[in-house]
Amino acid sequence: MPDSAHRFRTRLSQSARLSDSAISAAWPDWWSDAADASPSAVAELRFSVARKLGLDPRSLLEEEQPRFIWDDSAKYKNFKGDEEKDRPAITAFGTSLGRMLVKATPDFVPLEGLEAEGLRKSILSQKPFIGLIDLLAFLWGIGVPVIHLRVFPLVAKRMCAMAVRVHGRYAILLAQDSQYPANIAFHLAHEIGHIALGHIGENSALIDMEDTNEARDAKDDEEIAADRFALHLLTGNPDFTVGKAGEGHSSRQLAEQALSLGPPNGIEPGTLALCYGYETAEWGVVQKALGHIYTSPIPAWSVTNSIANGQLSWDELGDENASFVHAVMGGA
Ligand SMILES: [Zn+2]
Q1: Which residues partner with 207 through β-bridges?
Q2: Under 8 Å CB-to-CB from 50, ≥6 apart: which residues?
Q3: Neighbouring C-beta atoms of residue 285, cutoff 10 Å
Q4: How much is the pLDDT for 85?
Q5: Residue 193 C-alpha to ligand 1 middle, in angstroms?
Q6: How high is the pLDDT of residue 332?
Q7: Least CB-packed of 82, 114, 149, 215 within 10 Å?
Protein backbone atom coordinates (compact mmCIF):
# COMPACT_ATOMS: atom_id res chain seq x y z
CA MET A 1 0.00 0.00 0.00
CA PRO A 2 1.58 3.35 -1.01
CA ASP A 3 2.21 5.95 1.65
CA SER A 4 0.20 9.19 1.89
CA ALA A 5 1.17 12.04 -0.43
CA HIS A 6 2.62 13.88 2.51
CA ARG A 7 4.82 10.96 3.54
CA PHE A 8 5.70 10.30 -0.10
CA ARG A 9 6.99 13.85 -0.37
CA THR A 10 9.05 13.45 2.78
CA ARG A 11 10.47 10.21 1.37
CA LEU A 12 11.57 12.03 -1.79
CA SER A 13 13.29 14.77 0.14
CA GLN A 14 14.79 12.68 2.93
CA SER A 15 15.62 9.35 1.28
CA ALA A 16 16.30 10.58 -2.25
CA ARG A 17 17.63 13.95 -1.00
CA LEU A 18 15.75 15.79 -3.75
CA SER A 19 15.31 19.55 -3.35
CA ASP A 20 11.88 20.94 -2.48
CA SER A 21 11.87 22.96 -5.67
CA ALA A 22 12.54 19.85 -7.79
CA ILE A 23 9.76 17.92 -6.03
CA SER A 24 7.34 20.85 -6.44
CA ALA A 25 8.23 21.22 -10.13
CA ALA A 26 7.51 17.52 -10.69
CA TRP A 27 4.35 17.44 -8.57
CA PRO A 28 1.34 17.35 -10.94
CA ASP A 29 -1.06 20.32 -10.96
CA TRP A 30 -4.12 18.06 -10.75
CA TRP A 31 -3.15 16.64 -7.35
CA SER A 32 -5.26 17.55 -4.32
CA ASP A 33 -5.24 16.03 -0.84
CA ALA A 34 -8.61 14.41 -1.53
CA ALA A 35 -6.90 12.34 -4.25
CA ASP A 36 -5.13 10.32 -1.51
CA ALA A 37 -8.38 8.34 -1.23
CA SER A 38 -8.18 7.16 -4.85
CA PRO A 39 -5.78 4.27 -5.51
CA SER A 40 -5.53 5.15 -9.20
CA ALA A 41 -4.72 8.81 -8.44
CA VAL A 42 -2.14 7.71 -5.85
CA ALA A 43 -0.47 5.48 -8.43
CA GLU A 44 -0.64 8.15 -11.15
CA LEU A 45 0.98 10.70 -8.83
CA ARG A 46 3.94 8.36 -8.41
CA PHE A 47 4.22 7.61 -12.13
CA SER A 48 4.07 11.31 -12.92
CA VAL A 49 6.78 12.27 -10.43
CA ALA A 50 8.93 9.28 -11.47
CA ARG A 51 8.80 10.24 -15.16
CA LYS A 52 9.96 13.78 -14.54
CA LEU A 53 12.68 13.16 -11.98
CA GLY A 54 14.01 9.99 -13.58
CA LEU A 55 12.96 7.64 -10.77
CA ASP A 56 11.96 4.01 -11.03
CA PRO A 57 8.16 4.14 -10.45
CA ARG A 58 8.17 0.70 -8.79
CA SER A 59 10.39 2.06 -6.02
CA LEU A 60 7.81 4.81 -5.39
CA LEU A 61 4.74 2.60 -5.33
CA GLU A 62 6.07 0.65 -2.40
CA GLU A 63 7.43 2.32 0.69
CA GLU A 64 11.03 1.73 -0.17
CA GLN A 65 14.08 3.78 -0.98
CA PRO A 66 13.37 5.77 -4.17
CA ARG A 67 15.65 4.51 -6.93
CA PHE A 68 16.88 6.66 -9.80
CA ILE A 69 17.01 5.23 -13.30
CA TRP A 70 20.56 5.75 -14.37
CA ASP A 71 23.72 4.00 -15.32
CA ASP A 72 27.22 5.08 -14.45
CA SER A 73 28.15 6.04 -18.01
CA ALA A 74 27.63 9.75 -17.32
CA LYS A 75 30.89 11.65 -17.05
CA TYR A 76 31.39 14.05 -14.17
CA LYS A 77 34.05 16.74 -14.35
CA ASN A 78 35.33 18.15 -11.08
CA PHE A 79 32.76 16.32 -8.97
CA LYS A 80 32.96 16.89 -5.23
CA GLY A 81 30.40 15.33 -2.98
CA ASP A 82 28.75 12.03 -2.23
CA GLU A 83 29.21 10.07 -5.47
CA GLU A 84 26.91 7.24 -4.53
CA LYS A 85 24.03 9.43 -3.40
CA ASP A 86 24.32 12.59 -5.48
CA ARG A 87 25.32 11.40 -8.92
CA PRO A 88 22.23 9.25 -9.61
CA ALA A 89 19.89 12.17 -8.75
CA ILE A 90 21.74 14.63 -10.99
CA THR A 91 22.16 12.21 -13.90
CA ALA A 92 18.55 11.01 -13.80
CA PHE A 93 17.11 14.53 -13.54
CA GLY A 94 19.29 15.85 -16.39
CA THR A 95 18.66 12.88 -18.65
CA SER A 96 14.91 12.99 -18.14
CA LEU A 97 14.83 16.74 -18.80
CA GLY A 98 17.16 16.44 -21.81
CA ARG A 99 14.83 13.85 -23.33
CA MET A 100 11.84 16.16 -22.95
CA LEU A 101 13.69 19.11 -24.47
CA VAL A 102 14.82 17.09 -27.48
CA LYS A 103 11.25 15.89 -27.98
CA ALA A 104 10.05 19.49 -27.95
CA THR A 105 12.68 20.43 -30.58
CA PRO A 106 11.56 18.32 -33.54
CA ASP A 107 13.80 19.68 -36.33
CA PHE A 108 17.51 19.12 -36.18
CA VAL A 109 20.67 18.99 -38.26
CA PRO A 110 23.14 16.16 -37.51
CA LEU A 111 26.18 17.45 -35.66
CA GLU A 112 28.93 15.32 -37.21
CA GLY A 113 32.24 16.99 -37.90
CA LEU A 114 31.52 20.32 -36.26
CA GLU A 115 34.75 22.33 -36.02
CA ALA A 116 35.44 25.50 -34.08
CA GLU A 117 36.98 27.31 -37.03
CA GLY A 118 34.14 26.54 -39.46
CA LEU A 119 31.49 27.41 -36.91
CA ARG A 120 33.26 30.66 -36.06
CA LYS A 121 33.47 31.65 -39.72
CA SER A 122 29.83 30.87 -40.34
CA ILE A 123 28.64 32.99 -37.37
CA LEU A 124 31.09 35.82 -38.22
CA SER A 125 29.70 36.00 -41.76
CA GLN A 126 26.66 37.63 -40.17
CA LYS A 127 27.91 39.11 -36.89
CA PRO A 128 30.89 41.22 -35.83
CA PHE A 129 31.73 38.85 -32.95
CA ILE A 130 30.32 35.81 -31.15
CA GLY A 131 28.38 36.34 -27.95
CA LEU A 132 25.93 34.36 -25.85
CA ILE A 133 22.91 35.15 -28.02
CA ASP A 134 24.76 34.14 -31.20
CA LEU A 135 25.63 30.76 -29.66
CA LEU A 136 22.04 30.27 -28.52
CA ALA A 137 20.74 31.16 -32.00
CA PHE A 138 23.18 28.74 -33.61
CA LEU A 139 22.23 25.89 -31.27
CA TRP A 140 18.49 26.35 -31.65
CA GLY A 141 19.04 26.65 -35.42
CA ILE A 142 20.53 23.15 -35.57
CA GLY A 143 18.02 21.68 -33.11
CA VAL A 144 20.03 21.63 -29.89
CA PRO A 145 17.76 22.97 -27.12
CA VAL A 146 19.42 25.03 -24.37
CA ILE A 147 17.77 26.04 -21.12
CA HIS A 148 19.00 27.56 -17.89
CA LEU A 149 18.07 25.56 -14.81
CA ARG A 150 16.23 27.50 -12.13
CA VAL A 151 15.48 24.28 -10.25
CA PHE A 152 18.19 21.85 -9.20
CA PRO A 153 17.69 18.21 -8.30
CA LEU A 154 19.67 18.48 -5.08
CA VAL A 155 19.69 21.16 -2.41
CA ALA A 156 23.35 21.93 -3.09
CA LYS A 157 23.66 23.19 -6.65
CA ARG A 158 27.39 22.98 -7.39
CA MET A 159 26.75 22.44 -11.10
CA CYS A 160 28.04 24.59 -13.92
CA ALA A 161 26.54 23.05 -17.06
CA MET A 162 25.49 19.71 -18.48
CA ALA A 163 25.18 18.23 -21.96
CA VAL A 164 22.84 15.30 -22.59
CA ARG A 165 22.85 12.96 -25.61
CA VAL A 166 19.61 11.23 -26.56
CA HIS A 167 19.59 8.96 -29.64
CA GLY A 168 22.11 11.09 -31.50
CA ARG A 169 20.46 14.35 -30.43
CA TYR A 170 21.78 16.78 -27.81
CA ALA A 171 20.42 19.16 -25.18
CA ILE A 172 22.38 21.58 -23.01
CA LEU A 173 21.40 22.57 -19.47
CA LEU A 174 23.13 25.63 -18.08
CA ALA A 175 23.33 26.02 -14.33
CA GLN A 176 25.76 28.78 -13.44
CA ASP A 177 24.36 32.26 -13.82
CA SER A 178 25.87 35.70 -14.37
CA GLN A 179 24.75 39.26 -15.00
CA TYR A 180 27.28 39.32 -17.79
CA PRO A 181 26.77 37.17 -20.90
CA ALA A 182 30.47 36.53 -21.62
CA ASN A 183 30.80 34.26 -18.56
CA ILE A 184 27.97 32.05 -19.72
CA ALA A 185 29.00 32.23 -23.39
CA PHE A 186 32.27 30.57 -22.41
CA HIS A 187 30.50 27.74 -20.54
CA LEU A 188 28.14 27.25 -23.48
CA ALA A 189 31.00 27.21 -26.00
CA HIS A 190 32.76 24.68 -23.73
CA GLU A 191 29.67 22.40 -23.84
CA ILE A 192 29.54 22.77 -27.65
CA GLY A 193 33.17 21.63 -27.55
CA HIS A 194 32.28 18.49 -25.57
CA ILE A 195 29.55 17.69 -28.11
CA ALA A 196 31.66 18.43 -31.20
CA LEU A 197 34.63 16.47 -29.86
CA GLY A 198 32.51 13.38 -29.20
CA HIS A 199 32.97 13.36 -25.43
CA ILE A 200 29.39 12.30 -24.66
CA GLY A 201 28.36 8.68 -25.07
CA GLU A 202 25.05 7.69 -26.67
CA ASN A 203 22.13 8.10 -24.26
CA SER A 204 24.48 9.47 -21.66
CA ALA A 205 25.50 12.83 -20.25
CA LEU A 206 28.48 14.94 -19.30
CA ILE A 207 28.21 17.11 -16.23
CA ASP A 208 30.60 19.99 -15.56
CA MET A 209 30.46 20.72 -11.87
CA GLU A 210 31.32 24.10 -10.42
CA ASP A 211 34.29 25.90 -11.85
CA THR A 212 36.76 26.68 -9.06
CA ASN A 213 40.40 27.77 -9.02
CA GLU A 214 41.31 24.34 -7.72
CA ALA A 215 39.42 22.73 -10.62
CA ARG A 216 41.27 24.87 -13.15
CA ASP A 217 44.56 23.34 -12.05
CA ALA A 218 43.34 19.76 -12.29
CA LYS A 219 41.71 19.53 -15.70
CA ASP A 220 41.70 16.28 -17.63
CA ASP A 221 42.34 16.02 -21.39
CA GLU A 222 38.66 16.41 -22.30
CA GLU A 223 38.34 19.54 -20.18
CA ILE A 224 41.43 21.06 -21.77
CA ALA A 225 40.17 20.16 -25.26
CA ALA A 226 36.70 21.64 -24.60
CA ASP A 227 38.29 24.84 -23.24
CA ARG A 228 40.50 25.11 -26.32
CA PHE A 229 37.48 24.58 -28.56
CA ALA A 230 35.61 27.34 -26.70
CA LEU A 231 38.54 29.73 -26.95
CA HIS A 232 38.99 28.96 -30.65
CA LEU A 233 35.30 29.53 -31.32
CA LEU A 234 35.10 32.78 -29.35
CA THR A 235 38.48 34.35 -30.23
CA GLY A 236 39.74 32.56 -33.34
CA ASN A 237 42.72 31.03 -31.51
CA PRO A 238 42.68 27.98 -29.20
CA ASP A 239 45.79 29.36 -27.46
CA PHE A 240 44.57 32.94 -27.33
CA THR A 241 46.37 35.26 -24.91
CA VAL A 242 46.03 38.98 -24.39
CA GLY A 243 49.83 39.18 -24.49
CA LYS A 244 51.45 42.50 -23.74
CA ALA A 245 48.09 44.15 -23.22
CA GLY A 246 47.76 42.00 -20.11
CA GLU A 247 49.30 44.09 -17.36
CA GLY A 248 48.14 46.41 -14.63
CA HIS A 249 44.98 47.89 -16.08
CA SER A 250 42.39 49.80 -14.15
CA SER A 251 38.87 48.50 -14.71
CA ARG A 252 38.01 51.47 -16.89
CA GLN A 253 41.15 51.04 -19.01
CA LEU A 254 40.44 47.35 -19.41
CA ALA A 255 36.86 48.06 -20.51
CA GLU A 256 38.04 50.66 -23.02
CA GLN A 257 40.66 48.32 -24.45
CA ALA A 258 38.20 45.44 -24.66
CA LEU A 259 35.61 47.63 -26.40
CA SER A 260 38.10 49.02 -28.90
CA LEU A 261 40.21 45.91 -29.58
CA GLY A 262 37.53 43.19 -29.36
CA PRO A 263 35.18 43.87 -32.29
CA PRO A 264 37.86 44.50 -34.99
CA ASN A 265 39.29 41.10 -34.05
CA GLY A 266 35.91 39.37 -34.02
CA ILE A 267 35.95 39.05 -30.22
CA GLU A 268 33.09 40.04 -27.95
CA PRO A 269 34.48 42.70 -25.55
CA GLY A 270 33.34 40.84 -22.42
CA THR A 271 35.14 37.71 -23.62
CA LEU A 272 38.33 39.73 -24.09
CA ALA A 273 38.03 41.07 -20.53
CA LEU A 274 37.60 37.50 -19.25
CA CYS A 275 40.73 36.37 -21.11
CA TYR A 276 42.57 39.14 -19.28
CA GLY A 277 41.19 37.74 -16.03
CA TYR A 278 42.40 34.19 -16.75
CA GLU A 279 45.89 35.49 -17.42
CA THR A 280 46.26 38.00 -14.62
CA ALA A 281 43.81 36.62 -12.02
CA GLU A 282 42.79 40.24 -11.42
CA TRP A 283 39.16 39.24 -11.13
CA GLY A 284 38.14 42.32 -9.16
CA VAL A 285 39.28 44.53 -12.04
CA VAL A 286 37.59 42.25 -14.58
CA GLN A 287 34.24 42.27 -12.75
CA LYS A 288 34.24 46.06 -12.63
CA ALA A 289 35.30 46.25 -16.27
CA LEU A 290 32.37 44.02 -17.24
CA GLY A 291 30.13 46.53 -15.48
CA HIS A 292 31.48 49.22 -17.82
CA ILE A 293 31.25 47.01 -20.93
CA TYR A 294 27.64 45.95 -20.43
CA THR A 295 25.73 49.11 -19.65
CA SER A 296 22.46 47.30 -18.94
CA PRO A 297 23.27 43.86 -17.53
CA ILE A 298 20.55 41.19 -17.69
CA PRO A 299 20.83 37.81 -15.95
CA ALA A 300 21.95 35.23 -18.49
CA TRP A 301 19.28 32.81 -17.27
CA SER A 302 16.44 35.12 -18.27
CA VAL A 303 17.87 35.73 -21.75
CA THR A 304 18.48 32.01 -22.27
CA ASN A 305 15.05 30.94 -21.07
CA SER A 306 13.07 33.58 -22.90
CA ILE A 307 14.67 32.36 -26.15
CA ALA A 308 13.98 28.74 -25.15
CA ASN A 309 10.37 29.59 -24.36
CA GLY A 310 9.85 30.91 -27.88
CA GLN A 311 11.70 28.01 -29.55
CA LEU A 312 10.31 24.95 -27.76
CA SER A 313 7.35 23.16 -29.35
CA TRP A 314 5.42 22.96 -26.10
CA ASP A 315 2.58 20.96 -27.69
CA GLU A 316 4.95 18.02 -28.20
CA LEU A 317 5.35 17.63 -24.45
CA GLY A 318 1.85 17.13 -23.14
CA ASP A 319 0.49 19.26 -20.31
CA GLU A 320 2.25 17.55 -17.41
CA ASN A 321 5.75 17.54 -18.85
CA ALA A 322 5.28 21.05 -20.24
CA SER A 323 4.37 22.28 -16.80
CA PHE A 324 7.47 20.57 -15.36
CA VAL A 325 9.80 22.13 -17.99
CA HIS A 326 8.18 25.55 -17.39
CA ALA A 327 8.80 25.24 -13.66
CA VAL A 328 12.42 24.13 -14.15
CA MET A 329 12.93 27.20 -16.36
CA GLY A 330 11.74 29.47 -13.58
CA GLY A 331 8.22 29.83 -14.96
CA ALA A 332 9.50 31.48 -18.15
ZN1 LIG B 1 33.69 20.26 -19.37
Answers
A1: 76, 162
A2: 56, 57, 60
A3: 21
A4: 81
A5: 8
A6: 54
A7: 82
Report the Cα 150 to chain-centroid distance in Å: 10
Are 88 and 81 contacting, i.e. CB atoms less than 8 angstroms apart? no
pTM to 2 decimals?
Answer: 0.95
Predicted confidence at residue 1, as pLDDT, reads 60
Buried b / exposed e over 286-313, threshold 16 CB at 10 Å, is bbbbbebbbeeeebbbebbbebbeebbe
Between the CA of 220 and the centroid of ligand 1 the distance, in Å, is: 9
Beta carbons within 10 angstroms of residue 107's beta carbon? 9
Element (H, E) at 232: helix 221-235
pLDDT at 252: 95
C-alpha distances in angstroms, 103 versus 162, 218, 332? 18, 36, 19
Q: What angle do CA 259, 261, 266 make, to 5 degrees?
A: 95
Ligand 1 midpoint to CA 80 (Å): 15
CA of 60 to the centre of ligand 1 (A): 33
Residues in the chain with pLDDT values less than 70: 1, 213-217, 244-247, 332
Nearest alpha-carbon partner for 104 in 315, 302, 328:
315
The runs of H, that is alpha helices, within 73-212 are: 83-103, 116-124, 132-141, 181-196
